[in-house]
From TrEMBL:
Coiled coil: none annotated. One of its GO terms (molecular function) is oxidoreductase activity, acting on the aldehyde or oxo group of donors. InterPro entries: 2Fe-2S-bd, 2Fe-2S-bd_dom_sf, 2Fe-2S_ferredoxin-like_sf, 2Fe-2S_ferredoxin-type, 2Fe2S_fd_BS, Aldehyde_Oxdr_Iron-Sulfur, Beta-grasp_dom_sf. Keywords: 2Fe-2S, Iron, Iron-sulfur, Metal-binding, Oxidoreductase. It comes from Actinomadura citrea. This is Xanthine dehydrogenase YagT iron-sulfur-binding subunit. Gene3D superfamilies: 3.10.20.30, [2Fe-2S]-binding domain. Residues 16-92 form the 2Fe-2S ferredoxin-type domain. Pathway: Alkaloid degradation; nicotine degradation. It holds the Pfam family Fer2. Transmembrane segments: none annotated.
Length: 171
């Protein structure tokens, strides 16, 4: 492996160029291999919709999709996402038209501070697609997304409304 010219001895692989496909667009960035997908999105691509809550895999604020499956971006290396499709909350709307789940969160007042909301929405859409849409399942399959404002009843109501309107499909 080529060491970056500025790397001290023993510091590991240096900066390299990687390409990520984010929300359908190919982006090139220069990062060290240790950089998380979350930091690559927020710090290098200015996609700050995905939030850093804990940075250790416990809160779900950073939830994005990789190849259509939800992942915790803080626990995923950006370099591991080369050649895969990354979708963030910025990719959910169609121009100015919000995704039905975004509309439903607004209609049901499913957020207070809004910090957890992007991750909640990424999980909410995915769980319907995963088929975990029964009333008794929604809380369990959303349990990786914490909300310090405790908007949980409204979040579940928003998800149920989209489920009922779409026949269960999230996307
Ligand atoms: S920031 Fe990734 S799980 Fe909390
Ligand atoms: S709305 Fe504040 S953390 Fe969820």
């Amino acid at each position: 492996m080529r060491m970056d010219d500025t790397s001290p001895p023993g510091a590991g692989p240096g900066v390299r160029t990687i390409r990520l496909t984010v929300n359908g667009r190919t982006r090139e960035l220069r990062i060290e291999p240790r950089v998380s997908l979350l930091d690559a999105l927020r710090e290098h691509l200015a996609l700050t919709g995905s939030k850093k809550g804990c940075d250790q895999g416990t809160c779900g604020a950073c939830t994005v999709w990789v190849d259509g499956s939800r992942v915790l971006a803080c626990l995923t290396l950006a370099i591991a996402c080369e050649g895969r499709e990354v979708t963030t909350i910025e990719g959910m709307s169609d121009g100015d038209r919000l995704h039905p789940m975004q509309e439903s969160f607004i209609a049901h007042d499913a957020f207070q501070c809004g910090y957890c909301t992007p991750g909640q929405i990424m999980s909410a859409v995915a769980l319907l697609d995963e088929g975990h849409s029964a009333d008794g399942e929604i809380a369990e399959w959303m349990s990786g997304n914490l909300c310090r404002c405790a908007a949980y009843p409204n979040i579940r109501a928003a998800i149920r409304e989209v489920r009922d309107a779409t026949g269960g499909a999230g996307r």
